[in-house]
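Saturday, quiet lab. Running sequence design on the structure tokens for the scaffold JK sent over.
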């Protein structure tokens, strides 16, 4: 144990080990007796060292993608997600703005994408609960920025720019999680699509971001909000219809106020998924108003 601790305390050794684990992903996939959970724990430990972030994040994603069927029990998912969250989305202290995460966004996205893949192999109720639990740290971080960082953002300058980028990053991570909720078929009768439930849970925060004047002036933030909308539509497809009126109204108003092209991407996705809405007068009217306004 002592030798292992010394071995893992070196960031360069951790980086090399992480790259090696990633290279052996096909072996982990084809060998049931391979120490898969141990390898994943090593990768999560490697996230403690900036030098090994990239190698560890990439290897973690590859292992999750290839071995999702062996990792999809609720206890394993909860354990992996909890450890990953400390590096990817640490929960903010009460009454404070979320701390800045130095790990590059692409590495954070890789970890979320890997975990999302594992979720899709779980049963309907477990995937719903686990997905909402995984989204919660990002919602908390986004809410903390809106609630406690608005004055800093309004002052402009480098601090404001960093805070708004931090906000956009959290939204992009939520979009990655929602994008991962793509299933070959529809959920069983009685269960809402996980992507739809994630969007519903995020809606109050997304609305607060979209309504904040300082956010409406920041293109990366608005693009991230629209990315969440778009990914939810692409994942849930027809299951997103219950939220369609609300989405059309929100995106239409946002485009009227900001003229951001990302809003048109969302409307384009709605057209792709639903075509022209018929047999639902209220929804058809909302669609017509949003598209004519755009």
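Result came back. Writing it out in full:
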């Amino acid at each position: 144990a002592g030798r292992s601790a010394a071995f893992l305390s070196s960031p360069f050794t951790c980086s090399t080990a992480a790259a090696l684990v990633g290279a052996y992903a096909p072996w982990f996939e084809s060998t049931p007796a391979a120490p898969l959970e141990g390898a994943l724990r090593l990768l999560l430990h490697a996230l403690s060292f900036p030098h090994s972030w990239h190698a560890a994040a990439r290897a973690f994603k590859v292992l999750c993608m290839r071995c999702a069927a062996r990792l999809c029990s609720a206890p394993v998912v909860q354990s992996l997600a909890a450890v990953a969250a400390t590096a990817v989305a640490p929960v903010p202290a009460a009454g404070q703005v979320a701390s800045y995460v130095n790990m590059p966004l692409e590495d954070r996205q890789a970890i979320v994408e890997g975990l999302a893949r594992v979720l899709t192999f779980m049963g309907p109720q477990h995937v719903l609960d686990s997905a909402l639990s995984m989204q919660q740290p990002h919602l908390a971080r986004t809410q903390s920025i809106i609630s406690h960082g608005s004055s800093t953002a309004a002052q402009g300058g480098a601090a404001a720019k960093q805070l708004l980028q931090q906000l956009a990053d959290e939204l992009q991570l939520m979009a990655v999680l929602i994008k991962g909720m793509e299933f070959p078929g529809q959920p069983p009768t009685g269960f809402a699509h996980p992507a739809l439930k994630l969007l519903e849970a995020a809606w109050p925060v997304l609305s607060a971001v979209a309504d904040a004047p300082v956010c409406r002036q920041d293109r990366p933030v608005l693009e991230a909000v629209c990315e969440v909308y778009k990914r939810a539509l692409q994942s849930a497809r027809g299951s997103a219809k219950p939220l369609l009126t609300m989405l059309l109204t929100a995106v239409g108003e946002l485009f009227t106020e900001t003229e951001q092209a990302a809003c048109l991407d969302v409307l384009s996705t709605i057209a792709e998924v639903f075509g022209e809405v018929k047999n639902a007068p209220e929804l058809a009217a909302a669609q017509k108003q949003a598209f004519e306004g755009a």
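Notes for JK: Residues 124-148 form the longest helix (25 residues). The mean pLDDT is 88. Ask whether to fix the surface positions before the next round.
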